[in-house]
């Protein structure tokens, strides 16, 4: 004995399983020997064997499963289009520390870790964008077809993950006028066009070194890259990547040098409202070959892109580690009045003397104030995960002050 499944019953069932599609398939018989295909207006199209119908439905279910909104509220899967007057741009490298961010200030999250739908849903719930990481070998996208394919893959991924744009993080050495030089500019232009067309209101940003003066041999077409991007994120850190003078430990982002970099970008007539100031929430731990009586730490010569020395002689350390290490250091927190940055010395278990340079609220505040005075679009950090988000009262206070410093002092 068979029971009749009405047209309306089956339509309601399929609609509950699938997003609306151009074609809906329904049964029109009391037996399961054949099925009728109808369009969304209920108009007869053709008769199909039910086995074919079931296979097609299974295919649609599998194809669409990944595009089903993972949020409790479906509207949270809509792309964020609201523009903010002041941007706080956060790089997130994975894990769940994002749950402790100061979301009252965050406007954009660049997701550089594994895709986390929970993070996407939460960011959208507070009106913050979440954007993809975009990195590619420039040699691979000199060819127009390869470039177009790469861009479309990123657009499709952003749609699939309900994201709001892309952050292009390409830090390769490039010679002015080379094929890679032109391809990079074309990549930014074409990426912006594709994202803005296919995901209206989406954001395309590009990461640049702390100065446009061919830092690390990154001789890019900064004027046009800024023209085609919605934002440029100026990475005002790792400023000792090329040390041309004495091989000594120095600040990760000396104040005068950092602010001079922004003056150089502005002299290129780049719109200040496209510029995000990037700051470090980490420092460098340098083993000292020698520590002079004046406290100067001589470091190993590690060349980088033509320079005889670099910060590669040190090791990056998160702010959470630094705050613990300074308490057991030889010197406690010291302050360099010229570079406007804190540092300290400590001795490891093997007897090696180290010097650690970093940024804290005192060094960050004048930088954040310069965002306002120079009329920049906002501020951001590398990266949001590396504060101490534990329940320790001291750590909580230190973390809160670092977030507050983003808004100036």
Automatic annotation (TrEMBL):
Keyword Mitochondrion appears in the UniProt entry: no
Gene Ontology CC terms: extracellular space; lysosome
The keyword Secreted is assigned to this record: no
Superkingdom assignment: Eukaryota
Domain spans labelled GH18: 1-409
Pfam family, any one: Glyco_hydro_18
PROSITE patterns tied to this protein: GH18_1, GH18_2
Keywords assigned: Glycoprotein, Glycosidase, Hydrolase, Lysosome, Signal
GO molecular-function terms, A-Z: chitin binding; chitinase activity
Subcellular compartments: Lysosome
Gene Ontology biological-process annotations: chitin catabolic process; oligosaccharide catabolic process
Family annotation (InterPro entries): Chitinase_II/V-like_cat, Chitinase_insertion_sf, DIAC_cat, GH, GH18_Domain-Containing, Glyco_hydro18_cat, Glyco_hydro_18_chit_AS
Family affiliation: Belongs to the glycosyl hydrolase 18 family.
Function in brief: Involved in the degradation of asparagine-linked glycoproteins. Hydrolyze of N-acetyl-beta-D-glucosamine (1-4)N-acetylglucosamine chitobiose core from the reducing end of the bond, it requires prior cleavage by glycosylasparaginase.
PANTHER family, alphabetized: DI-N-ACETYLCHITOBIASE
Protein name: Di-N-acetylchitobiase
Organism this protein belongs to: Neogobius melanostomus
Lineage: Eukaryota, Metazoa, Chordata, Craniata, Vertebrata
């Amino acid at each position: 004995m068979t029971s009749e499944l009405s047209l309306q019953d089956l339509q309601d069932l399929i609609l509950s399983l699938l997003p609306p599609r151009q074609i809906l398939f329904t049964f029109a018989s009391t037996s399961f020997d054949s099925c009728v295909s109808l369009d969304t207006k209920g108009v007869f199209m053709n008769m199909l064997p039910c086995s074919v119908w079931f296979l097609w439905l299974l295919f649609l279910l599998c194809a669409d499963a990944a595009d089903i909104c993972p949020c409790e509220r479906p509207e949270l899967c809509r792309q964020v289009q609201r523009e903010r007057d002041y941007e706080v741009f956060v790089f997130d490298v994975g894990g769940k520390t994002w749950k402790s961010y100061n979301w009252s200030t965050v406007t954009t999250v660049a997701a550089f870790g594994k895709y986390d739908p929970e993070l996407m849903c939460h960011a959208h719930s507070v009106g913050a964008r979440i954007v993809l990481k975009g990195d590619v070998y420039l040699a691979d996208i000199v060819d127009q077809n390869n470039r177009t394919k790469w861009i479309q893959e990123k657009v499709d991924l952003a749609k699939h993950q309900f994201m709001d744009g892309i952050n292009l993080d390409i830090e390769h050495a490039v010679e002015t006028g080379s094929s890679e030089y032109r391809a990079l500019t074309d990549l930014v232009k074409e990426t912006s066009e594709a994202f803005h067309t296919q995901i209206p209101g989406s954001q395309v940003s590009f990461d640049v070194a702390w100065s446009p003066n061919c830092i690390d041999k990154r001789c890019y077409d900064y004027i046009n890259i800024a023209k085609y991007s919605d934002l440029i994120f100026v990475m005002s850190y790792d400023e000792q990547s090329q040390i041309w003078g004495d091989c000594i430990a120095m600040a990760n982002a000396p104040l005068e040098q950092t602010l001079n970099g922004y003056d150089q970008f502005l002299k290129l007539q780049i719109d200040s409202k496209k510029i995000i100031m990037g700051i470090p929430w980490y420092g460098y731990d340098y083993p000292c070959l020698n520590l002079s009586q004046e406290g100067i730490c001589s470091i190993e010569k590690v060349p980088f892109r033509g320079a005889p020395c670099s910060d590669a002689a040190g090791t990056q350390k998160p702010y959470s580690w630094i705050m613990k290490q300074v308490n057991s250091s030889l010197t406690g927190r010291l302050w360099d009045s010229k570079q406007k940055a804190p540092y300290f010395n400590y001795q490891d278990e093997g007897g090696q003397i180290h010097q650690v340079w970093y940024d804290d609220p005192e060094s960050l505040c004048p930088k954040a104030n310069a965002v306002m005075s120079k009329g920049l679009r906002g501020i951001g950090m590398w990266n949001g995960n590396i504060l101490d988000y534990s329940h320790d009262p001291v750590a909580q206070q230190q973390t809160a002050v670092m977030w507050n410093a983003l808004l100036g002092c």
